[in-house]
Protein: Sporulation protein Cse60
Organism: Fructobacillus durionis
Amino acid sequence: MLSRLVTGTKSEESFTDQLNAVLKDLQNDGNEIIDVKFSESLEHVSALILYK
């Protein structure tokens, strides 16, 4: 199992775009997405993508 971390700030709409682009790239490369876990702090948000 592999992982990929995507980070950004809460005020950025580009975080969603960045996350979607990473997910699309992983799927286009033939990887299977296992899980996506989100975490938030006061100003930042991150997504940990588990795939194989």
Q: What stands out?
A: The first strand starts at residue 2 and ends at 9. Residues 2-51 form one domain.
